[in-house]
Amino acid sequence: MSTFLTRRLATIVPTLLFVSMLVFGLQQLLPGDPAVVLAGEERDPSVVAYLRAKMHLDEPLPVRYVYWLGGALRGDLGESLRMQKPVTALIIEKLPVTIELAAIAIVIALVIGIPAGIVSAVAKGTVWDYAANAVALWGLSTPNFWLGIMLILLFSVSLGWLPASGYVSPFEDLRANLAAMIMPAFVLGNAIAAVLMRHTRSAMLQVLSSDYVRTARAKGLDERVVVLHHALRNALVPIITLGALEFGTLLSGAVLTEQVFTIPGFGKLIVDAVFNRDYAVVQGVVLFTATVYITLNLLADLAYFAVNPRMRN
After folding, report:
1. What tens digit of pLDDT does each residue of 223-276 get?
2. Are 266 and 252 in contact (CB under 8 A)?
3. N- to C-terminal Cα distance for the chain?
4. CA dihedral in degrees (234, 238, 242, 245; nearest 10)?
């Protein structure tokens, strides 16, 4: 395991370096001059010159990249000139909101997707299988923004059970927080549950036809033990990868869902930064989410060793 971990860590460093180059380089292709935009309508030349010097826009591109990368390695991702706050502080401020939304969404997806996939595989060809596949197809086909609007119309406008938008910290009012987060979390979890269901079904069908499962049944073991202990444990390997990657995607910011429900997470932060030409925020948030995504992928690989003993050899 130590050899595997060393190899994976050796690939993470150049990957992150390449991602940083890509993020910084693509950012420079955006039209417009951020110094001119931030200077306002008056566009005083002295102000523009000050802003260009502060953001190192008067330096060559490689020099600007070195400045930015050096700060990123020290934990300094720059400063948002629009909001006059360090990008790191903005990330720390928005991170709990995004983590909570992503965590609730992934729990909903796991609770729905994995049991549905197991039932569909065990009851292959029955009405339960067709029903689970129909629900999965619905989850994959339904746009998040449309489902969010429909939920608002039903539970907020018609029934008045849940708030239509907004965010309340769980430390202020836990009940209000859950009421505000349940609909956007369900919208996100619904689509992921459909993907998890299809992957769980496929993995379970493959495992249920294996020799060791037939041997377990021949020994007279209870079907529930065969399915949950022998089959599911080995089928979880690809599901762990999928779950980790989907969680990383959620942490990168669910732009449409956060916009519909006015959730102040990463999605809204990066959209506002793009419209405001706030380059430091865009670069910092994208680099941070890429780092989280790669780290979650590494943790998923390490989880294989806990789930599947054969991979420890």
Report:
1. 777 777 767 777 777 777 777 778 877 776 677 787 788 888 887 788 888 777
2. yes
3. 9
4. 110
The tens digit of pLDDT for each residue in 147-202 reads 888 888 988 888 888 888 888 888 888 888 888 888 888 988 888 888 888 888 88
How many Å apart are CA 126 and CA 147, to the nearest integer? 29
Q: Can you give the pTM of this predicted structure? A: 0.77
| CATH code of domain 95-312 | 1.10.3720.10
- Among candidates 193, 169, 22, which has minimal Cα distance to 109? 193
User: Which pair of structure tokens corresponds to residue 310?
Assistant: 């054969």
Cα–Cα distance for residue pair 3/150, rounded to 1 Å: 50
> What is the spatial distance between Cα 199 and Cα 203, in angstroms, rounded to a whole number?
6
Tokens of 270: 């990066």
**Residue 86: which of 97, 75, 99 has the closest Cα?**
75
**Nearest 10 degrees: Cα torsion 152, 153, 158, 161:** -10
Domain segments of the chain as ranges:
2-87, 95-312
Burial class (CB in 10 A: 0-12, 13-18, 19+), 32: exposed
The answer to whether residues 81 and 55 touch, using CB atoms and an 8 Å cutoff, is: yes
